[in-house]
Amino acid sequence: MTDIKKLTIKDTIKAFKEKEFSSEELRREFLKSIKKENKELNAYLSVFEKEALNEKNDGVFSGVPCAVKDNILIEDTICTAGSKILGNYVSTYDATVIKKLREAGAVFLGKTNLDEFAMGSSTENSAFGPTKNPHDLTRVPGGSSGGSAAAVAAGLAVFALGSDTGGSIRFPASFCGVVGLKPTYGRVSRRGLMAMASSLDQIGTLTKNVYDAALVLNIIAGRDEFDSTTVMGKVPDYTDGIDKSIKGLKIGVPKEYFGEGLDDEVKNSINKAISKLQNLGAEIIDISLPHSEYALAAYYIIMPCEASANLARYDGIKYGFSEAGKVNNLLDVYLGSRGNGFGEEARRRIMLGTYALSAGYYDAYYRKAQQIRTLVKNDFDEAFKKVDVIIGPTAPTVAFKLGEKTADPLEMYLSDIYTVAINLAGVPAISIPCGFINKLPVGLQIIGRHFDEATILRVGHNFENN
């Protein structure tokens, strides 16, 4: 059989048509690989062996095996969000993206590891242990969709779904050397995604190449009557025109993305990628996103505030781990349930958010952060009057060592410096591999106008194929 670790969606569909192998044979090979390699990698939290072998749905993705981040609901399966609080929670329905993929014939191999409730940049905050980077098992895969990125990079799934609140798809894509797409806010339904920060969260894809990202987006994008933030209108075919030349396309390079904090070797890799795009006929234009320096601070106020509100439901009364029946009063139920159930990073963010929303501090922090958010969005709007896409690094460094930044949360938060502004503005972005430093991947980030995923996919596809 063909090396399944390298199979793309396009390759898989072609192999099925040419009867190179059957869907069942492929599933068995993937399940065998997962069983063999996952103990060390810890990319999967659960594997659906019986279901994966029995799944038989016709459609454009018929028989294509994929992985799903464990904060996206699949009916009748455990969904933990990487937290002890939901260790026994069984999903009662399919998320809209799962329903669409199921109708398209995709096969779900299992659920992948993540930072608890998607809070983290390294997948070290999972209650079920960290995931390791397939390129170097002593390093992190990025987060919070680290399990999905590692599964695709290690060849333990053809593609995977993740969620991106401040870079949680693109960041692990960069560290693991795969393609990570965060669509425009409202392009893909969030129904069935466990909410962390509702105005920032977006479901997206982790694939082996850009064409596959376009194929999956074709399936999962579109209006959902159960998610009022999704937009009306027909979803384009994202593979249509993806091969078109980028000659004459205007690409903006923000000066703010190449300052202090960016590793010199990463900068060299990004500059080489820029030269390559220029050689393909694109026009490179220097631009400025003047409020970029405030984006990280604004994000780390808005996100904990929304997370605090969303996670308030896990109080031991309505949902989640409960001390009820073991203690004598309601206060002890709250303290025992929330204190023992949430991990350290989740507690930190809940406390930060609750503080910022409290009387006397709301105007000073949350309102001010929302004003900065508007300025960040305006920066992108102004830039896109001059250019078609914006490019820069996805992450300031290559994958760091396990445990290297866990003692200093601020240093960990600074890892998101190039990704959070995209979520604040709600624009689409994709991370694609653009080189290696000491055998560790470097990611190039391509940012587009609202609902113009087609152009960033086209730029990424041209870069990848040349």
What this model shows, in words?
The protein has 466 residues and is of the alpha/beta class. The protein has helices at 9-17, 23-41, 49-54, 96-103, 146-153, 170-176, 210-220, 264-279, 292-311, 330-341, 344-357, 363-383, 409-413, 420-425, 453-465, and strands at 44-47, 65-69, 107-112, 159-164, 179-182, 202-207, 250-254, 283-287, 389-393, 429-437, 440-448. Strands 1-3-2-4-6-5-10-11-9-7-8 form an eleven-stranded mixed β-sheet, sandwiched between helices. Helix 7 (210-220) packs antiparallel against helix 15, helix 9 (292-311) packs across helix 11 and helix 9 crosses helix 12 (363-383). The longest helix has 21 residues, at 363-383. It starts with 8 loop residues before the first helix and ends with a helix.
Provide keyphrases for this structure.
globular, alpha/beta, 466 residues, single chain, eleven-stranded mixed beta sheet, 11 strands, 14% strand, 38% helix
Biggest sheet, strands in spatial order? 1-3-2-4-6-5-10-11-9-7-8
Distance N to C terminus: 28 Å
- Approximate shape: globular
* Gyration radius over CA: 21 Å
Largest sheet: 11 strands, mixed
Unreliable segments of 5+ consecutive residues: none
Helix content: 25-40%
What is the string of SSEs from the N terminus onward?
HHEHEHEHEHEEHEHEHHHHEHHEEH
**Relative strand content:** 5-15%
Structural class: alpha/beta
Overall mean pLDDT stands at 95
The count of DSSP E runs of length 2 or more, i.e. the number of strands, is: 11
Per DSSP, the total helix count is 15
